[in-house]
Design brief:
Layout (H helix, E strand, L loop, with lengths): L1 E5 L7 E4 L10 E11 L1 H7 L14 E2 L3 E5 L5 E6 L7 E11 L6 H21 L7 E5 L4 H12 L4 E6 L2 H8 L5 E4 L4 H14 L4 E4 L3 H10 L10 E5 L12 H5 L3 E5 L7 H20 L6 E6 L3 H4 L8 E6 L1
Parallel strand pairs: 8-9, 8-11, 9-10, 11-12, 12-13, 14-15
Antiparallel strand pairs: 1-2, 1-4, 3-5, 3-7, 3-15, 5-6, 6-7
Helix pairs in contact: 2-3, 2-8, 5-6
This protein binds NADP nicotinamide-adenine-dinucleotide phosphate (NAP).
């Protein structure tokens, strides 16, 4: 079969002939792959830098973590790859697949799934979002952030505040459900003052963070209390585009009713992952098929994978490889 194969961590994937994978037991199934999105997770796994990467297993490895594929009887499903999915054939777990609704394209389904994990799992299970909550999304300008804005509204958020460095993308988010914009492209003092004022006017219940780094430090500092009762805020770290480390003063932490947690592979319970496949993804695929969840994609061909790997993607779009 043809496949995108990584021979060296941090190199470019190569379009080559590669042996077909074999289902190892009854829990696995061989599928024909149709579309695979390339996300930050695939890039960091391919580079061997993601925390879930198996650093030793780097030679001649098919990349791509999940995608849309056909079962032997032609049923179209979204699945998580056991073998790499940027290939004509892959093996997936039978227990972790979702049958796709008619009217939803392969490309949209492939692009949407990981962003739903990065948005809905954080909002529902880590932030325990409630109707009427005020939600702040830090790094909302990325693909996953844009999906999070929409899902927060679908889950009943009263107000969604978006923060990020990209002014044009921040403006786009107004048309996608965001109610208030805060640009992180300002001096620390001004940014802190704007965040503090926003929290005073509309106490923030939930923060979904895709950046971490300095902007997360500023947001956490803006929650700091003065020794009396504070509003409870549930802060969920989902990504770290702005850096993996922050400084957080213990006094800051003690001064506020703060729940600080993370959402990602390893932080979810078995039941929560079960609900992702039985409820959350099916609902979001239906909403996307009905035009109620909107995303932007760029479709490319597997044969061009080496040239496309470092392609400059327009803001808020997802690269999807069709096979
Ligand atoms: N844990 C999970 O379940 C899960 C699931 C999905 C995603 N994620 C993570 O969430 C993060 C965002 O994913 P995504 O799909 O939205 O990625 P994406 O579409 O590539 O978007 C990245 C966003 O980060 C911004 N950004 C990049 N570097 C930055 C920096 N140094 N400072 C401030 N902003 C910066 C970009 O802003 P510009 O537009 O200005 O370039 C863009 O808005 C990634 O870390 C990803 O791994 C986690």
């Amino acid at each position: 079969m043809k496949a995108a194969v990584m021979y060296q961590n941090g190199g470019l994937p190569q379009y080559v002939d590669f042996p077909e994978p074999i289902a190892q037991n009854n829990d696995e199934v061989l599928v024909t792959v149709k579309a695979v999105a390339i996300k930050q997770l695939d890039r960091s796994k391919a580079a061997g830098t993601h925390y879930s990467s198996e650093a030793k297993n780097v030679n001649g490895r098919v990349i791509g973590g999940d995608g849309v594929c056909l079962l032997a009887d032609g049923t179209r499903v979204y699945g998580i790859g056991i073998s790499g999915m940027l290939a004509e054939k892959a093996t997936i777990e039978k227990s972790r697949m979702v049958v796709l609704p008619a009217g939803l394209s392969d490309v949209v389904a492939a692009a949407l799934a990981n962003a739903v994990m990065g948005a809905a799992m954080a909002l529902r299970f880590k932030a325990d979002i409630q109707p009427g909550d005020v939600v702040l999304i830090n790094g909302a300008t990325g693909f996953t952030g844009r999906v999070a804005v929409q899902i927060a509204k679908l889950y009943g958020a009263k107000k969604v505040i978006v923060t990020g460095r990209n002014e044009k993308s921040l403006q786009d988010l107004i048309g996608m459900g965001a109610d208030e914009i805060i640009s992180t492209q300002q001096e620390d003092e001004q940014l802190l003052a704007q965040l503090t004022e926003t929290h005073r006017n509309s106490p923030i219940d939930v923060i979904i963070d895709y950046l971490w780094g300095h902007t997360a430090e500023m947001i956490l500092a803006s929650l700091k209390g003065k020794g009396s009762f504070t509003h409870k805020t549930r802060f969920v770290s989902v990504g770290s585009m702005g850096g993996d480390l922050i400084q957080l003063s213990a006094a800051n932490l003690r001064s506020v009713d703060l729940q600080l947690t993370g959402s990602g592979l390893g932080s979810w319970s078995k039941d929560q992952v079960g609900l992702l496949f039985s409820e959350i993804l099916p609902e979001m695929f239906q909403l996307a098929a009905a035009g109620k969840l909107r995303i932007k994609t760029i479709e490319v061909q597997l044969a061009n994978i080496a040239d496309l790997w470092n392609l400059d993607i327009p803001d808020g779009h997802r690269l999807v490889v069709t096979i």
